[in-house]
Amino acid sequence: MKHKIYNYLAGFFSLAIVTTSCVTDDDLIQVDPNNDAVDSFWKTDQDAIEGVNAAYGSLLTDGTYMRSTPLLLDLKGDDTRSNSPWDAMYNVGRFNSNVSNAAIYGWAYETYYQGIYRANQVLENVPKISITDSALKNRILGEAYFLRGLYLFHAVNMFKNVPVPTQIAAIYPQKTEAEGWAQVIADFKSAAEFLPVSYSNANDKGRATKGAALGYLGKAYLFTKDFPNAKITFKQVIDLGVYSLVSNYRDNFTDTNENNSESLFEVQFSRSAGGVDLGWGGAPATGWGKTSARAITYGPRAFGWTDVQPTFTLFNEYKLEKTTTNQDDPRLDATMFYNKPGMMLYGQNFATFYGGNAGDLNDLFCRKYQNSDGAYANEFDWRSGINERLLRYADILLMYAECLNETSDTPGAYTYIQMVRNRVGLPNLATTKPGMSQAQMREQIGHERFLEFPLEGHRFDDIRRWGWLQDPVKLAWLKSRDVEFNSYAAGREFFPIPQLEMDNNPGTIQNTGY
């Protein structure tokens, strides 16, 4: 079957319990007399490491970056479209997720809170362990703060008013969006204080760093329109002096140059680690591998399921400006497959392979995060080992430029935008568009981000945080670029709170628009 059928089981940490005023959390949280694992764990350095490793593990399952989270982040943007036969996926980009069917968005919600719970276990228990290496202890706590902040970042950003668990309890009340963001900021601040700038041990590759924590702290400030603090924080990342743009843009989306100088944080996938089964969710099984289903889900027709495709709006916008050598922007070919002389995919010539079907021949397909350079015939084994890059240095540079513009330093924004443009050979913006106003620079930054980050889960976040959906002119413009915006309704920039959470967590209020 194309899409695995799930049993949507209880995994949220808001339990289905009828409470009265005389019942406390201590009454509800009971130790299983047949399982002494809790009593015997959290004793040693190794327990602490394994505990925080489990918190990273929640990044690898279907609810997060194995499949669901990229879909939820990508499909609402004007850079993507979906004609998936799976209604739960098809409806994401049409702002029509079904409250009675929590497929995809409900799995994400569940897994974010699984990750938060695991991070809270670390934060509650590791301080009690007598770890002689204080640097190791601080690092583990920093990783837990970072991961809790990251999972909560996603929960607040996509679901708005959500529980904000900071300790182990039976029920977590729903909090406001502002309260959620405040905790995200607090967690990333703590993480930045504890985490190292880098790791000397190659086995620690992929762990959170100070730069990752500061990068996400800056994003949280930016998303809450605290431009002065965001500017300071992004400059701290730049001043660390450990990040730089890789020369080849496409190296950010293959398995050949992972954890490179441009990457602040990425989810570690591998075809060679663990078993061969996919981590669909729930308790980890011994046969689970560490692979992603993104490639097959986004894969070109006949090589994958083609549930996600680039828009022609994105294709056309890449064509607006030539490089200094009068070539197309090289990010176009790194982002999508299309009918171009010499275009190859999975060892096949595009024009020849699709030549018998005019619809496919003239269509656009995703290339980012595809194993399409010839080593594999297709994606139908469901096992991609390409790391998911969550935060790139290019994003830091463009967000810093945005903060400069929003704090009345529009001239200063040119420098950091041009660093990103130089990588792909685009002309000097200060020459082609000198003296832009603050409003003009906002539009330019929107354009630059659109072309730098398509299919990376950033575009709709930008649309939402810029308030374009509440601006009639901008909303009409979005509708002209992507027909899926025609079904947008107020409030549906956020996903619904899953019905299981509504049922199990007394007092939870559904998001507006559902």
UniProtKB/TrEMBL annotation:
Q: Where in the cell is it found?
A: Cell outer membrane
Segments forming domain RagB/SusD: 262-514
Chief site of localization: membrane
Q: Where is the SusD-like N-terminal domain?
A: 81-222
- Tell whether Oxidoreductase is among the UniProt keywords: no
Q: Name one GO cellular component term.
A: cell outer membrane
Matching entries from Pfam families are given as: SusD-like_3, SusD_RagB
Looking up CDD domains in the UniProt record yields: SusD (cd08977)
Q: Which Gene3D superfamilies match?
A: 1.25.40.390
The UniProt keywords, alphabetically, are:
Cell outer membrane, Membrane, Signal
Signal sequence extent: none
Hey, which family's this protein in?
Answer: Belongs to the SusD family.
Stated name of the protein: RagB/SusD family nutrient uptake outer membrane protein
